[in-house]
Amino acid sequence: MEFGRRITNCRMCGSEKLYTFLDLGFMPPADGILSPEEINEPEIFFPLKVAQCSDCGLTQLTYAPNPEILYGKKYLYESSITKTGREHFFEMANSICQKFNLTKNSLVIDIGSNVGVLLSGFKKNNMNVLGIDPAPKIAKIANENGIETWQEFINHKVAEKIISQKGKAKIVTGTNVFAHIDNKQELMESLKIMLDDDGIFIIEAPYLVNLIENLEYDTIYIDHLEYISVKPLVNFFNKWNMDVFDVEKYDIHGTSIRVFVCQKGKRKIEERVKEFLELEEKKGVYKKEVLDNFANKVKNHKKQFMELLRDLKKQDRRIVGISAPAKGNTLLNYCKIDSGLIDYTTEKTLIKIGNYTPGMHIPIMNEEKILEDKPDYGIIFAWNFAEEIIKNNKKFSEGGGKFIIPVTNQGIEIRGYIKIKD
C-alpha cells in the first residue's frame, strides 16, 4: 500500500509557488485510535507541514496520506456525541430546506456522512437521503440508525450508480469533508454527474481567518488537507463553471463557514461573498508576515502549555484529559504530552473507550472515571464544546476539580468551580 504523496503543486490551481510556514513535526492519523494490542505494534507517522499557495491563496498540507489509511477500520470519529453538534446539524438541515424551499422527497446526498446526523435532520424534513462514507464501523452505525449509507469513497462510478438508482440530487453536502479530499478532479467530476442542474453543493469547514486569529492550530491534522477561505474557493469553482453564491458564518468548531455553490449563472451572487473576500484581505491571511507570526505564536503556545503542565506536576497535581477528539491528538503529539503528564483521557464515545490515543498512547476511559478518581485538573481537548463539557462534568468541578481549556481567543484558560444552572 502506498502511504500517500508529497504535495509540490497547489491542489486547486496547480501552481508550484507553495510557501511553507508551519511545521508541527511528524504525526499519526488524528483519528487513528489504537486498541490495547496495537500500542505494541509499529505506527505510521506523517509530516505535518502547512503551506499556502502564493497564486490562489489555498492553505494546504504538504503531504496527503492515502485515504485508505485514514478512513479504514480504525476511523472512529462520531459526529453525534455532543448536544451542541447535533443541534447544529439539525439547524443546518432545517435552514437549507427553508432557504431553498425544497420540495418533499428531494434527494439530499451527504459526502462523508459519518453516522448520519445531518441526514437525519433532512429526513425529518421529508427529504430522500443518502450517505456516502468509507469508514466501515461508522457506515454500519449510520445504517443501523436508519440512514441509508453506502460504504464508499466518492468517485464517478459511485456517482453514476447514485443517479441510476436514486436520480439526481437537489442538495449535496460536505461538512468538514471537502478539505479532506485530495483528488479534487474526481470529486468535481462526481459532483457534475450527480448534482441536478439547479442543485446546490454546500461545504462547511473551519474558517482560516479565525484559525489564525484565535491560534486554533490543533485543528490542523493530517486528515485536514486544506484550511478553507473564500478567495481560493471562488477561483476554484469558477474553473468548473460554478459560482460561490453565498457564504454564512457559524460558531461551530471554533468558527466555521458554510459555502453555497451552484452551476454558473443559476443564482444571484450575494453581497456576503464580497464581504468575506474583503475581510480576508483586511486580515492579511495571504501575507507571509501574518503566516510567520502565526507560526511563532504556535511555538510560544506550546512552550506556555508545557510549562503549565510541568509546574502542576511539580506540585503533585494529577492531570487527566476530558474528551479524545482528533484535535486533541495534535496537541498531545506536537507538545509531546504522554502518560507521564496526564494519566488518561475520558470519552463518551463507546467505540473509543478502552483504547488509546495515537502517538502518545494515553488510555481512553469512560467519562465516569474522573468522578471515581477525583484528579485535580481536566484538560478539555474538545475546547469547541467546552461549555457543554463543563456543564456535563459539574460534579467534577463541585468536588474541587479544575478545567484547563488549552485553546481560547484569550490563550490558555483555567476554570475552577462555577455554579451552573440546570
Provide an overview of this structure.
By secondary structure, the chain is of the alpha/beta class. The protein is 34% helix and 23% strand. The chain is built from 14 helices and 19 strands. It has a seven-stranded mixed beta sheet, with helices on both faces. The protein has a six-stranded mixed beta sheet with strand order 16-15-14-17-18-19.
Would you kindly provide a brief summary of this structure?
34% of the residues lie in helices and 23% in strands. The chain has 14 helices and 19 strands.
Helix/strand/pairing category: alpha/beta
Q: β content, as a range?
A: 15-25%
Report the span from N to C terminus: 51 Å
Whole-angstrom Rg:
21 Å
Quote the average pLDDT: 92
The parts where pLDDT drops under 50 for at least 5 residues are: none
Q: What percent of the residues sit in helical stretches (DSSP H or I)?
A: 25-40%
Largest sheet descriptor = 7 strands, mixed
> In order across it, which strands form the biggest sheet?
8-7-6-9-10-13-12
- Secondary structure tally, helices: 14
What's the total number of strands?
Answer: 19
Write the layout of secondary structure elements.
Blueprint: E1 4-6, E2 18-27, E3 46-53, E4 59-61, E5 63-65, H1 67-70, H2 83-99, E6 107-111, H3 117-124, E7 128-132, H4 136-144, E8 149-150, H5 156-165, E9 169-175, H6 184-194, E10 195-206, H7 208-213, E11 226-227, H8 230-239, E12 242-250, E13 256-263, H9 271-283, H10 288-314, E14 319-322, H11 326-335, E15 345-347, E16 364-366, H12 369-373, E17 377-380, H13 386-392, H14 394-398, E18 402-405, E19 413-415
Helix pairs in contact: 2-3, 5-6
